[in-house]
Amino acid sequence: MLVRKRSQQQLGRRSWSLCAYVAAVLATFWTGQIASAQLVFTNYNSANSGLGSNFVYDVVASGSTIFAATVGGGLGVSISGGSSWDNLTNANSGLGNNVVFSTFFDSNTLYAGTNGGGLSIATSGSSTFTNRTTSNGLGSDSVRGVYASGSTIYASTSAGLSISTDGGSTFVNRTVSDGLVSLNITSVTANGTNVYAGATGGLNISTDGGAQFVNFTSSNGLAGNIVNWVYADGGTVYAATDGGLSVTTTNGASFTNFTTASGLVNNYVESVFANGSTIYAGTIGGLSVSTDGGGTWTNYTTNLGDNVIYGVYADSNFVYAATGGGVSIAPIPVPEPSTWIMAAVGIALASCRALRARLA
């Protein structure tokens, strides 16, 4: 009798283990179905939505408002998800130049880095821009990138990194004498007192608010020496280079590089954006997206305005790509799991609970 009871207990434990395993497998498959959902892009250009120019260098969004930096068409602003645009230009809003390389929005202030017109700044409610140029201390009136936090503004120019701590009234320009690898600064971002500046020559990192820089090149493990874009997400820094995407969590002490061998669509990376474990790498061959920190990549080359992705941005609902053929926008999908998967998981979990109660 005792042997029979033990056999029943052993059979029950095995049945419970099998039941739990089946439920776990179904739940994993359910999660996988959600994670594998694809982005579907819609492209907006001058023909179908009134964008000022089809050549878009940068894009950013704040809530329902989208800002697109275009070449020759000024700064496009859309409050309709991209289906229509108001174009801010030199003629109608005092923009420094209609060739806009970069744009940034911080709180209630809009920034546009222009080619030859300096840095254009407009506050919420204003219909015109105030332009900051070399007369205000900018290294050059060609501003390739801009980042702001409160009253501190960083402008990457063709003649150094310009920093303002008074909202743009005056700038101090940092050059090779301050440790920069070159004067041609392509991109800039900051995280507290850590400042990261991409350049034709490598990645520049400052830990003292931009007073002095240390530069990192391929000899330090960087994927390439032309850094087209730099982005910081907390303590993780991403550098879009001509040889792949470089990532450091140690302020340059070491880099992890992602290339076509890792799954990128192309090794020449123009832009990068990240949010947690999701990384968006804009290349000259399409958009590469990883949802697991770079472990695997999904590549997008269809429905984009062009496969050269000059800028990329994402919020909780949409992905925005600045291309040579317009602004391409895709909703971030959260698909409903299949009905039969939901039912199977429900049945498995109910069976497990019933079996556990019997064994108790």
What does this molecule look like?
The protein is an alpha+beta fold and 360 residues long. The protein has a domain at 1-37 and 338-360. The protein is built from four helices and 28 strands. The protein has helices at residues 2-35, 46-49, 90-93, 339-359; strands at residues 42-44, 56-62, 65-70, 75-78, 86-88, 100-106, 109-114, 119-123, 130-132, 143-149, 152-157, 160-164, 172-174, 185-191, 194-199, 202-206, 214-216, 227-233, 236-241, 244-248, 256-258, 269-275, 278-283, 286-290, 298-300, 309-314, 318-323, 326-331. The strands form seven sheets. It has a four-stranded antiparallel β-sheet with strand order 1-28-27-26. The chain has a four-stranded antiparallel β-sheet with strand order 2-3-4-5. A four-stranded antiparallel β-sheet has the order 6-7-8-9, with no helix packed on it. Mean pLDDT is 89; it is low at 1-8 and 25-35.
